[in-house]
Amino acid sequence: MSVNTAIQLITREQAENAAKSAAAGKATATCSPALAKGPWEYDLAEALAGVPAYGPGASNADVAPAATPRQGQLPEEYKLASHGELDVRIRAAKEKLGSRAVILGHFYQRDEVIQYADFVGDSFQLANAALTRPDAEAIIFCGVHFMAETADILSTPEQAVILPNLAAGCSMADMADADSVEECWEQLEEIFGTEKDDAGRVPVIPVTYMNSSAALKAFCGRNGGIVCTSSNAKVVLEWAFERGQRVLFFPDQHLGRNTAKAMGVPLEQMPMWNPRKELGGNDEQALLDSRVILWHGFCSVHKRFNVGQIEKARADFPGVNVIVHPECPMEVVDAADSAGSTDFIKKAIAAATEPTTFAIGTEVNMVNRLAAEYPQHTIFCLDPVICPCSTMYRIHPGYLAWVLEELVEGRIVNRITVADNVQESARTALERMLAARP
Ligand code: 13P
Ligand code: SF4
Q: Is residue 364 included in any domain, yes or no?
């Protein structure tokens, strides 16, 4: 059963008989019954009154910046169409477009969208997938904004990258904006200076997680820095430590902390930078003694996982294999059997030769899809509450049908374009990452 269908049922049954579902071993709670509605209900700013601006399910701590893109109104016909009708229309448009369009789907997308993807993968694999199709005029990215930006940077200028719903951002990526990072950089330069040490290392190297705006990737490109993903963060940090005395890591504190800790960096040498405070809330000596300065960012989906859930899984399923994403808090990663990117999780399950019970700490759409793909194993999400990524949720088959049918008519809607001057430096940082691969 897809995550969407499960949310619809929970919402209905909450009013009727949740107890019956519980007895049948079905999930009985969602973080927001509003997720059962069409995402177009939240396309207008006013419609978000009482709901965090990232949409239903987003944590209230996630404050969307004023400049967060808004999606205009989806034409009525797509809102009213049944799934069956949208299915026929999407398949027909895909057929007409043929190799002119390629659809990319991130692991966290709903099943109702993933079924149309030509490539399914993590953010890095999808960026590469775009490169394998230089013949395609349009790359329809069913993922979030930073992924579409990366595809635009890596694709040819003739190719148009389309994000079916412009409101599909990433609250974590938005936690580090270019101005705040520039301000932080200036303060750090004042403390560290710009002189290299005897080993030829600069005072600090900026490292940005793939989950960041193109502007921040460009910042890293301009300042001797690099991009990383959750699958290559260790290799990238090694690259950075060869060239720098310390690292400024943004926006995800957890990926930075978990990776550096596994490499032996003591927690005392990882101060946190809070952009709302002077010197990020640190004293000068703490910054001078640091090895990794962690930006105060987090993913609200992965923040939901906790040690109690792992303890419960171990009590309920002795021998359970607990795998979590490194965006989870450190205590969760420490309590799990292993931690790794979405691709790592997928490969770990694929490699299990004996029927195994897996408890997974990552986005629920991906976990449920893995459970359906590998029926020989028992696979469940550590979080018993169904809470998909609220921005990925913004992409619905209705938007996909709309952008595809517009393309058939020769119109490009929702194009994501990174300015040329930003592209150049951002590509430098991305290319350093590609070259740093083991
Ligand atoms: P991946 O880089 O593994 O695709 O993860 C992206 C993401 O948003 C994780 O929350
Ligand atoms: Fe961003 Fe978290 Fe959603 Fe990934 S799961 S896109 S980090 S909000």
A: yes
Indicate whether 9 belongs to any domain: no
Domain encompassing residue 225: 174-299
Query: Per-residue pLDDT tens for 365-417?
Result: 999 999 999 999 999 999 999 999 999 999 999 999 999 999 999 999 999 99
pLDDT, tens only, 184-214: 999 999 999 999 999 999 999 999 999 999 9
Largest CA distance in the chain: 71
Question: Which atom of ligand 1 is nearest to 341's Cα?
Answer: 3
Contact 167, 56 (CB under 8 A): no
Read off the pTM.
Answer: 0.94
Number of domains in the chain: 3
Atom of ligand 1 nearest to the CA of 125: 4
Q: What is the pLDDT of residues 318-331, one digit of tens each?
A: 999 999 999 999 99
State both tokens at 286. Answer: 């703490």
Using the structure block, give the residue that is written with the tokens 């998909």: 388
Q: CB burial class (10 A; 0-12, 13-18, 19+) of residue 420?
A: exposed
Q: Is 99 helix (H, G, I), strand (E, B) or coil?
A: helix
The CA distance from 366 to 179, in Å, is 34
CB of 232 shorter than 6 A to ligand 1: no
Same domain, 198 and 322: no
Beta-carbon contacts of residue 157 (< 8 Å; ≥ 6 apart): none
Same domain, 86 and 108: yes
